[in-house]
Amino acid sequence: SSYSAAGHSAGRAEAMARMRASFSSAMQQRHRPFRCEVCHYTSSSRWHLKRHQMIHTGEKPFKCYLCPMTFALKHNMATHMRTHTGERPFRCEVCPRTFSQQQGLKKHAIQHTYFGFNSAL
């Protein structure tokens, strides 16, 4: 069996071309825009589109076991559970106040900035 450098180079070039085409196809598949059929929303993620579509379907698969509230996202249900448990994991660095949601802490911190860092709100 004789070795052909030219044949080896051509074979390698073909393999590289196939790999590039396969990669390009995979990237287009992964990053193609997923479109909502109800509105003009698009996403590069199938998961984000599915989450968005819950707006239109009203689907809320996560139910609080302590009250009638339901949620589209598990994270929102977990945040809601703090209303039942009294958990307040977000602590102000300036004063002793705590908050059940990060958004509450952010609003509070703005007041410290506006009124001064040493003011106890």
From TrEMBL:
Residue ranges occupied by any C2H2-type domain in the UniProt entry: 34-61, 62-89, 90-113
GO-annotated molecular function: DNA binding; DNA-binding transcription factor activity, RNA polymerase II-specific; zinc ion binding
One GO cellular component, as annotated: nucleus
Keywords assigned: DNA-binding, Metal-binding, Nucleus, Repeat, Zinc, Zinc-finger
SUPFAM superfamilies for the chain: beta-beta-alpha zinc fingers (SSF57667)
Principal localisation: nucleus
GO biological process, one term: negative regulation of transcription by RNA polymerase II
Cell compartments where the protein resides: Nucleus
PROSITE patterns: ZINC_FINGER_C2H2_1, ZINC_FINGER_C2H2_2
InterPro entries, per database record: Znf_C2H2_sf, Znf_C2H2_type
Pfam families in UniProt: zf-C2H2 (PF00096)
Keyword Transit peptide appears in the UniProt entry: no
Record-linked PANTHER family: MYONEURIN, ZINC FINGER PROTEIN
Name under which the protein is recorded: Putative regulation of transcription
Species, as recorded: Rhipicephalus microplus (Cattle tick)
